[in-house]
Every structure is written in structure tokens, then in C-alpha cells.
Amino acid sequence: MRGDVPPVPRHGSVAQSFQASREGPHPGTGSILPVTSCRVPAGGRSCAPVAQLDRAPDFESPPHPATFAELAAEFLARWVPLQPHPATYRYSTGVLVRHLGSTPLASISVRMVEGFIATRLLEGVSRGTINRQRALLSRICGVAVEWGYLASNPVKRVRPFREAPSRMRYLTGEEASRLVAAIRSDVRPLILFLLHTGARRGEALALDWSDVDFVRRLVRLRITKNGDSRTVPISASLLATLNAMPRKVGRVFPFTPFGLRRPWRAALKVASLQDFRLHDLRHCAASFAVQGGVPIQAVAQLLGHRSLQMTLKYAHLAPGHLRGAVEAIADATAIWTGEDSAK
Questions:
Q1: How many structural domains are present in the chain?
Q2: Where is average pLDDT lowest: 12-16, 111-115, 164-168, 213-217?
Q3: Distance of CA 118 to the CA centre of its chain
Q4: What is the residue-averaged pLDDT of the chain?
Q5: H or E, element range at 288
Q6: SS3 label, residue 220
Q7: Residue 108, by phi and psi: left (phi above 0), alpha (psi -120 to 50) or beta?
């Protein structure tokens, strides 16, 4: 017989206490009172406080940044990691912090932005680079508006510089051979990869061995500028180059952009090449393809261009470019003027 443990009384139970607290001293009022204890039978276990229903959870919002440096730090921590290429933001954000870091957030104004631009011009920075830095500053201030730190974005009221048409530099076949021969041996496979595929530097540096299909001679570029991955075929010679490399787990080309600077500059000096950037290897690949008679639409797919307009800048390199159009016009003109019948 279990007479040593009395039955739990319904009066004073947790449910009844909660119901009483809901009804308050006057039933029907619906007032919420804290339930801090419950009654248990003698010999039973003690009961901890159930809840404090009259208190809202204590969520503290982060303090507003006081300076641009604090805003930039939060921008790098919260916004940048969500972007496709977070590394591209860090260096340029550092440049902004070096010039504007101590500026109080409340002092960010059109005048301050114009002063920053004037300072960069005096430092000899190109207008194109200043435009990129202005765009990043506008992005940071725009995010600050979304977060409630700024009432408006003053950078929007400062116009960017008008830039000249984009620069396009490419090599002849003989110059490309000199460059490949001059580059450091461990960097040479990367240079050949860029020349053969037209990939961007960041796309190549992000390439993983698991993205290389040696059987079907394909590489998958997963991290691209526009966010859309693409598959690029590789030539037999590039396949041989990749096969000769020691295969490891991870990245195919374990370099950093900064680490490539010294061997790249040294190769340009040995090869007697001037005014040529690593990115220009992409232009070389496109120009070689167009000069070889590859249709411009296929070149656009190879380069990952979303718009054919971006690829048309290489169209003048095609053999017989516009010659057929000129001959067609001449034939039509001959008919209109009667020259054709006179022949």
C-alpha cells in the first residue's frame, strides 16, 4: 500500500497557479503575474521558479560605432563574409580606414568625401582607382544606413570621375613565349592555365583539384566574378601540364595575389615586357581565340561574359573583320549606281 505518499492535491498545482496568475485577483482581467513557486506534497522534490512572465527577454542591441574605423570593422565582420569574394574588400577597406578611420560617424559628409578624393589625387592615385574606392565607401555608408547608423549616404552626392575606355593589352605569340620561359618554374603552370583558359586570376587561384576532370578534360570554375560557376575545356598541352604537377588535396595553385607580385615583375623584366598585368593574360586568351577564327559567342562563353557586348571589344581581331560587310555594301552600291552593268 502506498499510503506513505499522499496524493498530490489539485489545489496549489502548477497548472492551477498559472491559471490563477493569468486571471489575476479579478478573474477575467487577464493580467500576467510572475509564478515564482509551486506547491508539492510533503516528501516530494522542491520546485524551482517556473517563469517570470512579466519580464521581456533582455536582448541588448550592439552599440552604434562612433568612428568610421569601428563601422568598417563591423562591415568586415557582418557584411563582407556574405559576399562571393570577401577577400577583395579587405585591402580596399584598409585603405579607407587609413585615411578616414578616426573620423566620427556623425562627421561623414559630402565635404569629407570630397576631401578624401582630393587627397588621393595628390597622392598620385589614378582616377579609376579612386572611383573604385569611392564606390566601396558608398557601399559601406549605404549598409550603415540600412543598419540605422546613418540617416543618409552622403557619398551618393559626390560624382565619380569620368573614365577613359577600358585598357586592353595583349601579347603576340612570340611575346607570350618569352614570358612563359621567363616566369619562375613553380608559377609557370598558373601562367599557362590563364593563357589557355582565359580565366581570371581569382578564379584560377580558387581552383581545387576536385574541380579538375582529367578524363573529360574539363575544369569547373566555381568561384567567379559574377557568381555563376562555369565549365571550361582544357587543351591537351594544358592537360599535360596539370598531369605533371604534384597532385595534392586542396588548391591547384597555392599562391596569394601578393605572393605572385615578385615572380611576375621579375619575369616581365627578363622577357622585356612593359605595361602588362597578370589580368592581361585573359585578354591574350581572348585575342588568340578570335584571331584563330573562334566565333565571338563561343569566346563569350569561354570568358564567362553574361553580355555579348563585353566580348565585342575583341571582334576587330577576327580575320576579315567587317570585310564582308564592306564588300556587300560595295556590291549594292554598284547596282544602285549602274557600275555593275557598265562592267
A1: 3
A2: 12-16
A3: 28
A4: 80
A5: helix 280-291
A6: strand
A7: beta
Known active-site residue 200: yes
Cell of 177: 613565349
Same domain as 209, residue 179:
yes
Query: Are 152 and 179 members of one domain?
Result: no
Confidence of residue 269 (pLDDT cuts 50, 70, 90): very high
Instruction: Please identify, among 252, 278, 304, the residue that sits at the C-terminal boundary of a domain.
Output: 278
Look at residues 244, 278, 312 and tell me which one is the last residue of a structural domain: 278
Instruction: Find the domain containing 15 and state its range.
Output: 7-54
156 is catalytic: no
Catalytic one among 279, 306, 321, 323?
279
Residues 31 and 119 in one domain: no
Q: Which range, 6-10, 53-57, 245-249, has the best average confidence (pLDDT)?
A: 245-249
Placement of cell 550603415 in the chain: 144
- Catalytic member of 89, 170, 196, 314: 314
Instruction: Yes or no: say if 327 and 299 are a contact pair by the CB < 8 Å rule.
Output: no
Q: How many beta carbons lie within 10 A of that of residue 172, not counting itself?
A: 11
Range picked from 8-17, 45-54, 296-305 for highest mean pLDDT: 296-305
184 is catalytic: no
Same domain, residue pair 233 and 141: no
**CATH assignment at residue 240:** 1.10.443.10
Q: Is the pLDDT of residue 32 over 60?
A: no
- Is residue 120 in some structural domain? yes
Is 91 catalytic? The answer is no
Among residues 120, 134, 196, 200, the one annotated as catalytic is 200
Q: Is 314 a catalytic site residue?
A: yes
- Let me know whether 94 and 13 are in one domain: no
Return the pLDDT at 37: 44
Q: Which of 99, 220, 225, 230 is catalytic?
A: 225
Question: Residue 222: inside a domain, yes or no?
Answer: yes
Same domain, yes or no: 127 and 195: no
pTM assigned to the model: 0.58
34 within some domain:
yes
In a domain, 337, yes or no: no
- Look up residue 89 and give its three cell numbers: 574588400
* Beta carbons of 282 and 199 less than 8 angstroms apart: yes
Active-site hit among 120, 134, 201, 282: 282
Q: Is 78 a catalytic residue?
A: no
